[in-house]
Amino acid sequence: MSTKPLSLPQPPSKPPEFGRDALIVCESLVRIYQSGSVEVQALQGLDLVVESGEMLAVVGASGSGKSTLLSILAGVDAPTAGRVRVDRWNLLTMSRADRVRYRRHTVGFVRQQTAANLIPYLTARQMVDLPMTAAQAPARARRRRTAELLDMLGIGDLAERRPAQMSGGQQMRVAIAVALANEPRVLLADEPTGELDSATSAAVFGTLREVNRRLGVTVVVVTHDPAVSGQVERTVAIRDGRTSSEVLRRAATGSDGDTQVIAEEYAVMDRAGRVQVPRDYREALALTRRVRLVLESDHVAIRPDGGEAG
Ligand code: ADP
Ligand code: MG
User: Fold this and answer.
1) Which of 39, 59, 64, 68 to mutate to test the pocket of ligand 1 (most atoms within 8 A of CB)?
2) Which amino acid residue places its CA nearest to atom 5 of ligand 1?
3) Domains identified in the chain and CATH numbers
4) Distance between Cα 123 and ligand 1 center (Å)
5) pLDDT of residue 280 exceeding 80
6) Average of pLDDT values for 5-23?
7) CB 218 within 8 A of CB 73
8) Total-model pTM
């Protein structure tokens, strides 16, 4: 058989950069942990785009790579491969000095263990003051910002208390205030409600929504609780270190004038065109290793491999 030279039409110009106008862009992100002789692929080619001003929930089972993603976005950990940009910062190539600046001013990070965010011998006021002192903000601005934040988070009367004198929900609010002290563009919260009862966690979630709305801070919140997707407009699900599906919620007004919230679930196609077909769909039609893809005029169908017959 002779081989014809490939003459594919060339695109007129370079395609636009993936997520060019977004605040956060992760592309084919890979993070491999080496523990002894064992390699763990915590992220396996994750794509994620977050627009400025968004509040996004990331859900996924334990071990799916959520904390790994958040520590990379926080500038605490570095990916093994891929691309990650936040604001104007390329997190793979930034210098050490820029990384310090980035962590101080661009992102606020609430870590998964509440205690890891707090210093036992400092009061709430002192803890919120600390990042601003590190950033050499003037004393008067620090005092004003601390009071504003504690008030806004509903803990103004706890300013002189230490962590041991607060409830779990109050400690979490202090941790959020500390993360917001230097007016970051992005707030990253890793399971902020993981150690809280359901009423308290709903209240903390409400607080994050308020931070997003009132301060215009872009919020990325990680949780293993799928119920929180009811509280945000967009939820991204991570499976096996990849984004696998998205739920978008929007308010729609029906003909009777009533407003309803409609949630729609989407599969996520990665940059190479891969889509994960949910397990119940695969099982319903016995889709296994090989399937037929059929291009229709307005959709693509996936059919079981029926042998020779089409
Ligand atoms: P999640 O936050 O969704 O529970 P993680 O990001 O913490 O998931 O972990 C993803 C995977 O990477 C898990 O299999 C976990 O065991 C592994 N992992 C996380 N951190 C490390 C580490 N420092 N060393 C080795 N393996 C790790
Ligand atoms: Mg985690």
Assistant:
1) 68
2) 65
3) 51-79+87-243 (3.40.50.300), 277-310 (no CATH)
4) 32
5) yes
6) 71
7) no
8) 0.87
